[in-house]
Amino acid sequence: MTNESNFIDSPFPILLTFHANAPAVRAELRSMQKTTLPLLKTRNYSLIIFNKGHLMQDFYQAVQHHLEKESAKLSRYTYDTYRWHLHKLRLYRESIDCKNVTEAFIRGYIEFMRARRNQESTINRSLSILRMFINMAIKEKAMRTNPMKDTVIRKHEGLRHFLEIEELQFLYRRFLESSAQLTYSERESLRAFLFSCFTGLRYADLKTLSWEDIQNGKIRKRTQKTGSLIYIPIPNQAQNLMQTKNASLVLHVVNNSSFNKNLRSAAQRLGYKKRLHTHLARHTFATACISLGIPVEVVSRMLGHSNLQTTLIYANYASSVIDREMKKFQL
């Protein structure tokens, strides 16, 4: 990037050379530079000249500029996740100068998320990504310091909700019997949700699941999130949910916010009261597998976990289900 001290002479020296009043214009610009640059350096952002000569003060623009430069190195899942969190920040504050990204801004963001009833695990995840965004702005020289550098974001292991086997059977049966009562979006969202309950696929992998990923009744696919290769035999219930090969993708999956909205309305129409959401399906698959006696190591591989400890969390919940059920046999 061009050094701040000589940005007047470069990268646009030819333009000034051929300007009729070039010497006068250059002298005036140098005079402005002497007063402007020191002022900018006292703020929490610096002067950035892009190819169109724009001054980058807006925090979101600085982050977006960095993401566009690095997009080739990011997976589609990661890039979309960052874009979603930028959108979420804009819902909190439509625009914000880099100099105003302070501890007060961060505290306000936390209160905003709590007011929207975000879980603590969701809030912590959002704060982690905000810290990444600030570091991106620093790399773009739009900010000098990170107000979150000393912030400790505690990993909050929230309660993983899941469907009981009986609940899953009820939803599956109602879908097969009464899906005609649903709108197209509700039907396809619930279809994808149930498919995830029986296969453990993440939302991003549901959305990109193609017929080429399915061979001999088994899913072989690299996950969008980690790039790990997963191998999942498709149970009969999931095969019944797969549509005919009239498109390259197996399922029609809408964007995440609409997906969850469709799930809730579909469940209500079919007489199911529990609040459904994307991650509930994956949690259901993991807990059901372990409850049915499938070894944790096998479940971990099907889920695409890189760390067995992550899968063991589900084992703890499965144990609580077993303990509760065994009480029914006490005389």
Automatic annotation (TrEMBL):
Domain Core-binding (CB): start-end pairs: 54-138
Keywords, comma-separated and alphabetical: DNA integration, DNA recombination, DNA-binding
Molecular function terms from GO: DNA binding
Domain Tyr recombinase: 158-328
Domain of life (superkingdom): Bacteria
SUPFAM superfamilies with a match to the protein in the record: DNA breaking-rejoining enzymes (SSF56349)
GO terms classed as biological process: DNA integration; DNA recombination
Gene3D superfamilies noted in UniProt: 1.10.150.130, Intergrase catalytic core
InterPro entries cross-referenced by the UniProt entry: CB, DNA_brk_join_enz, Integrase-like_cat_sf, Integrase_catalytic, Integrase_recombinase_N, SAM-like_dom, Tyrosine_recombinase_XerCD
CDD domains: INTN1_C_like
Family indicated by similarity: Belongs to the 'phage' integrase family.
The protein, known as: Site-specific recombinase XerD
